[in-house]
Amino acid sequence: MAYPTNLKYTKDHEWIALAGEKGKVGITDYAQAQLGDVVYVELPEVGAKLKQGQSFGTIESVKAVSELYSPVTGEVVEVNSALKDKPETVNKDPHGSWMIVIRMTNAGETDGLLDATQYEKVIT
Amino acid sequence: MEQAAAAPLKKTPLNARHRASGAKMVSFGGWDMPVEYSGIVAEHMAVRERAGLFDVSHMGEIEIAGKDALAAVQRISSNDARKLQVGQAQYSGLLTPRGTFVDDLLVYCLAPAHFLLVVNAGNIPKDYAWIAEHIKNVGDAVAVDASSRYALLAIQGPKALEVLQPLTGIDLAGMKYYWFAHGEVASVRATVSRTGYTGEDGFEVFVPPQSADRVWQAILESGTSAEVIPCGLGARDTLRLEASMRLHGNDIDDTTTALEADLGWIVGWKKDDFIGAAALREQKASGVTRKIVGFEMVDRGIARHGYDAYVGETKCGLVTSGTQTPFLKKAIGMAYVPIEHTAIGKEFDVDIRGRRTRARIVPMPFYKRSK
Q: Which of A60, A63, A84 shows the shortest C-beta gap to B40?
């Protein structure tokens, strides 16, 4: 799968779609393929404060549990609760299945994120 | 999914086939095994609805032969092998003197003085040493680790019979559950048993390792119209858990007795002495203080192996297996809890990474196929 160039990525295999002071966060195609069939997603409450690299939830496949890590520092302003009932959409459409929206409080952090080309090098 | 640190992983004769087919591989019990081909959920559903093919060549085969082979088997195996006719198999336990599990196994009666024991992959050297040590004074009986002489394939699911039958002269429809026969499969010398670890009808096929790939391919080809797919250990685990079959190393080990594991039915109570008999008879008389139960989650969450169970604020037990099952679409599991808390419908909490999550005891098996 090609990695969308409008997204930024982390070495922990999250993506973030930046729009002004907000960022929409999900996991990459590589991450979902490694996990296998996703059966459970646990997400934070709106209002949760996150630091860059901090766990904001868990994702479980049939076999394994993995942490979800925030690509940036900020406050959770929206949560995609539809994933609770349809966790398998993370497998089908990883780059469309956003999990949280964060209002960023440290704009400088985004400079350290990976672009699509850099991320593809991480996973190959 | 951590890799074993020291010894190189062992490979089944189908290893190259798995890798060439793009299976996701993991380390399991010292073996490099496929965990999934097309996905655990798809493979699980294929076995429930059609059929799936598994490479279980990592399983061990230990043969016991000699004039006193039956006495030797009776000594080390908890179930009563006198009940076996030639061509019949039984589930049993290899128990310690405390009545706990060295391993669980299938005992096949090949001939009146010749038995085949199928044991778990990670336990082969331990089991063989245990058996050899404990049968040496029985008389004329010798144990041989014959694992390298067998590849083992499992075709499991409601369509297993119609897929396998065209490849063999053995009358599969006439074969009863837990019986076996010798013959050929895809023109390869084979032993076929009506056994499995999925809760479905199905067969396990013992073939020489050098012919394993040929038989694997032949079964997949025969299963084309039935949409048979290759399956990995991931689906094998979710299937056996739905069927409430114990997994050694998870649900049973050398700290859990056969009675605590609710496996009293594999103990030959009418037998003479065998390893573990005295302890189990005493425990049966005095009553167990804890027992394995099946549960499903009431709250959202998935309980997994090693999570603690609580009643109120008291830590009282341990989850030994747990997953979100693809067919029942529920989070289920098995746990050891105090005997006074084992009634169907009772509830307890599981500590899921710091969060107390409610579970309810339900009857096992979770899944039972319609006959």
A: A63
